[in-house]
Amino acid sequence: MAGRMIVGPKEPPAVLDLSGGANQGGVRAYNERLVMSLVRRHGGLSKADIARRSGLSAQTVTVIMRVLEHEGLLVRGEPQRGRVGQPSIPMRLNPDAVFSFGLKIGRRSASLILMDFVGTIRHEVRCTYAYPMPEPILQFVSDGIGEIEGRLLPGERERIAGLGVAAPFELWSWADETGAPALDMAIWRKVDLHGDMAARLSYPVFLENDATSACAAELVFGNGPNYPDFVYFFIGSFIGGGVVINSSLFSGRTGMAGALGSLPVQGQDGRTVQLLKVASIFVLENLLRDHGQDARSLWYSPSEWIDYGAPLELWIKNSAAALAQAIVASASIIDFSAAVIDGGFPEWVRARLVKATREAVRTLDLQGVLMPDIVEGVVGHQARSIGGASLPLFSRYLLDQNVLFKELQ
């Protein structure tokens, strides 16, 4: 998983540098990560399956799995009896072995989760605001972590690997579109988000762009196993996205690859605008206000929207038309196997938007374009938080997808 690691007060174990040499301990650490990553990817594997997929010897796999089981990172599943021989015993990740915090900072709300080793959210706290400001965000994180820690047993608190933060880069941008005071938002230019959080917390802190984090969550916990290459759109206050190639996030030379919100599309009036000015939730917020409806309910709970009627229908229609153009443009450059659409809204809104996007694509000139499958995201509105929470786990225990992609079949 691509991610920017920002070192906090407690240094996690060093990540093995695959580009250079390694001593015996480094090789052992790499092999342990490989085994856990294969188990995570396939849900459960026997020793024989791991040896076949990893290329490691059966003896090496036996030793590694014995160590990982002793440390509580792997647990035994139910024996699987085949036609001949002794039954095989699949090994699975222990959900209770490791926990991590994931923080999503949005332009209208923040969410803090505690996730277990297999990606299940155990606890969550949320807050909403007119626009994000540094000090309230920092206080929310401190209070939220304290609240969640209070729900845990002492042994569970000791197994927290860190905090992963998913936040928009350049939070001061687009203040006008959300109605936030430009002078207030400009404060973010001088904020050291990592440094301020690390000073308050006893955990290592990791930082990544929010849309990239959402894409990483979809790669690991969603459509990733089905599509080795996909373009990903996540619709929050502003639409963003990511690019996956060979089952690995592609971040580009500057780390900004997949900034899909900047793609030029044709609006309903025929003028060329950026995708984010059509297919973003702040556009729906403005439509609701224009129709005299309370737009604040958009941010209370992304999973509990009501049917807003005509404004929602118009937003879906316009967003689908813009997304269709963006997907065709993306597919003309890279022959993605899928275009994945997700966002901070309920599943029924996502389903309607994906259906409308498929219909809008049919109205475009597709000559010379190999169209990808247009599919719904699996992770849902918490993709950014889950992606953030994944960063500490991959730093300490697992390998990137580009390693897993090379496993023996």
Describe this structure in words.
It contains 15 helices and 15 strands. With 409 residues, the protein is of the alpha/beta class. The protein folds into three domains: 4-95 and 396-404, Arc Repressor Mutant, subunit A, CATH 1.10.10; 99-212 and 385-394, ATPase, nucleotide binding domain (Nucleotidyltransferase, domain 5), CATH 3.30.420.40; 223-378, ATPase, nucleotide binding domain (Nucleotidyltransferase, domain 5, 2-Layer Sandwich), CATH 3.30.420. The strands form four sheets. The chain has a six-stranded mixed sheet, sandwiched between helices. The chain has a five-stranded mixed sheet with strand order 11-10-9-14-15, with helices on both faces. A hairpin with a 2-residue loop joins strand 10 and strand 11. It is globular, with a radius of gyration of 22 Å. The model is unreliable at 1-22 and 402-406 (pLDDT under 50).
**Strand order, largest beta sheet:** 1-8-7-4-5-6
Largest sheet: 6 strands, mixed
* DSSP strand content: 15-25%
CATH architectural arrangement of the largest domain: 2-Layer Sandwich
Q: Which stretches are poorly predicted, pLDDT < 50 over at least 5 residues?
A: 1-22, 402-406
User: Could you give the distance between the termini?
Assistant: 21 Å
Order of helices and strands: EHHHEEEEEHHEHHHEHEEEEEHHHEHEHH
- Helical content band: 25-40%
Predict the CATH topology of the largest domain: Nucleotidyltransferase, domain 5
If you compute it from the alpha carbons, what radius of gyration comes out, rounded to the nearest whole angstrom? Answer: 22 Å
User: How confident is the prediction overall: mean pLDDT?
Assistant: 88
**Category by helix and strand content:** alpha/beta
- List the total number of helices: 15
CATH class of the largest domain: Alpha Beta
Number of E-state strands:
15
Shape: globular
CATH superfamily of the largest domain: ATPase, nucleotide binding domain
What's the number of domains?
3
